[in-house]
Write a structure and sequence with these properties.
The chain is α+β, with helices and mostly antiparallel strands. About 20% of the residues lie in helices and about 30% in strands. The longest helix is centred in the first third of the chain and has 14 residues. This is Glutamine amidotransferase type-2 domain-containing protein.
Length: about 325
């Protein structure tokens, strides 16, 4: 399974470096859930500079690193572990970014050697919303799981993909959903495992978090009112042991949960959300879903599962 981690800063946090230290620690811990590639997206909200060594064009088969600016967002990613792509010169952008998305990849669909398949992915909204409304701006997104991408392409008119992962069509669908109700409806059509974190580029101070079937996602708030998410609740306990950050709450999202969170004048808060019925395939219930979990955390999460199981052949799920 892949590893998700991220940060939504409180506008009133006195020490941005503390949250940055926690983010880097989460990235290091997330290596246990994937080392094929890793990436970080800094949602700066202003023109982003890039740096680092010279690089080949995005998508080149032999490319190992990229550092690209995308209209108020800087995305740094590369093949290998998080610690192989993280650089000290990225700390300035980390300290001043209101939102940061992180991902470590264990490739299940799509070549691990092409950076078009590495996350965070930058997806343009090329189609109208599912209700026929005008499409919103594109998104920057991360996914942990494995879904039936063909079912999404059969149901929705999605653009051609640039990579070969199951994540890209899912993000293309979500990029075309301008309202929370449309997002929840779209999430209800997913078949397979999915935990998601994404940001619309026209609203870089808001984060969308969702847990469909199985793939775990925990959300935590520290005592400075910064908000974090991660694929393993244990990571937050480890961060407390190795940094000065202290967490006031840590909560595992239940399957079928969608949240839109943003920074108010005081601290991050849930702005809206929804629920949906998640659908898994019979073979999705696998111990690897809880890679890195303590036995107690895994047992507690298993006891709260509430997805439905797709019928044989998946043809009846739509």
């Amino acid at each position: 399974m892949c590893g998700l981690f991220g940060l939504l800063r409180s506008p009133r946090a006195d020490h941005p470096g503390r949250a940055s230290d926690a983010f880097v620690a989460l990235g290091t811990l997330a290596e246990e859930r994937g080392s094929d590639s890793a990436g970080v997206a800094f949602l700066t909200g202003h023109p982003a500079a890039t740096g680092g060594p010279p690089r080949r064009p995005e998508g080149h088969r032999d490319e190992r690193r990229s550092d690209l600016a995308h209209d108020g967002c800087r995305v740094v990613k590369g093949r290998g572990r998080f610690t192989s792509i993280w650089r000290p010169d990225l700390l300035d952008d980390l300290d001043r970014s209101p939102v940061v998305l992180g991902h470590t990849r264990w490739a299940t669909q799509g070549s691990p050697f092409e950076l078009d398949n590495a996350s965070p992915l930058v997806i343009e909204a090329a189609a109208a919303g599912t209700s026929g409304n005008a499409a919103p701006a594109g998104i920057v997104a991360t996914h942990n799981g494995d879904i039936e991408a063909g079912l999404l392409r059969a149901r929705y008119a999605l653009p051609d993909a640039t990579g070969t992962t199951d994540s890209e069509p899912l993000f293309q669908l979500l990029a075309g959903c301008p309202s929370p109700s449309e997002v929840a409806d779209a999430l209800g059509t997913i078949v397979g495992r999915a935990a998601l974190a994404w940001v619309r580029r026209d609203r870089p101070h808001r984060v969308h978090l969702a847990r469909a079937a199985l793939s775990p996602l925990a959300v935590a708030a520290d005592t400075d009112h910064n908000l974090y998410w991660a694929s393993n609740p244990r990571w937050f306990r480890d961060v407390q042991r190795h940094t000065s950050v202290r967490f006031a709450t840590v909560v595992m999202l239940r399957e079928g949960t969608y949240l839109r969170v943003g920074a108010t004048s005081r601290h991050p808060a849930v702005l809206s959300g929804g629920t949906f019925v998640p659908t898994a395939r019979a073979w999705d219930l696998d111990d690897r879903v809880w890679t890195g979990f303590t036995p107690e955390d895994a047992e507690r999460d298993r006891a709260a599962l509430r997805h439905r199981v797709a019928k044989a052949g998946l043809a009846t799920v739509a």
